[in-house]
């Protein structure tokens, strides 16, 4: 290859690589932000029985429609975002970062197969055809009792909480980004568990996920400045 060709190849590849990183940086915080809105407006509590959840969905179908759309947006953006932030954490603290990335990836991938996301679709569809919440609750109970579905639901809960906590700690220990932003990712999941299950408060649960979104956004800014991983 001549010097001119080498120079052309070099200048031709750099803008594309930069665009790729910028596009990924834009996507990265969208998933946690979408979940933050979902958690803030969700018409039912996480600890509700399936029958109670179905009744509340039937009573708030407009809000639940927004929840379903935002869940789709989260599903489309969480995986690339978690991979990007997880790889940054892995580079900063290999063991912690790798463990966190694997757990978070497995957790969010399981969301596709779990009742966590699917129950909203089923409850909304059942409400639209006039099915009783009691019958919808029994259907959801039956689906959740299918071993792979139940396992996926448990894996989602454990994986995304523990995974993001470890990713946040890895980013903090490796000083890959400002300490406050790295800890925001880790703390967000502790607060999420508290305000989703222990003391259900939708607004505070949404704010907890906003912390994760801010942390992801800061990580995205680091990705833009850093060399390709």
Features:
229 residues; mainly alpha; 84% helix
Detailed description of the structure:
The chain has 229 residues and is an all-alpha fold. It has one domain (22-225). The chain is 84% helix and 0% strand. It contains 10 helices and no strands. α4 (61-92) packs antiparallel against α6 (115-128) and α6 packs antiparallel against α7 (133-144). The longest helix is centred in the middle third of the chain and has 32 residues, at 61-92.
Instruction: Compute the separation of the termini in Å.
Output: 26 Å
What gyration radius follows from the Cα positions, in whole Å?
A: 20 Å
Helix content: over 70%
**What kind of sheet is the major sheet?**
none
Mean pLDDT: 89
- What are the low-pLDDT stretches, counting only 5+ consecutive residues below 50? 1-17
Q: How many domains, as an integer?
A: 1
Shape designation: elongated
Tell me the layout of helices and strands.
Elements: H1 3-27, H2 30-41, H3 50-59, H4 61-92, H5 94-110, H6 115-128, H7 133-144, H8 147-173, H9 179-198, H10 202-225
Helix pairs in contact: 1-10, 2-4, 2-10, 3-6, 3-7, 4-5, 4-6, 4-8, 4-10, 5-8, 6-7, 8-9, 9-10
A few lines on this structure:
This protein has 229 residues and is mainly alpha-helical. It contains ten helices and no strands.
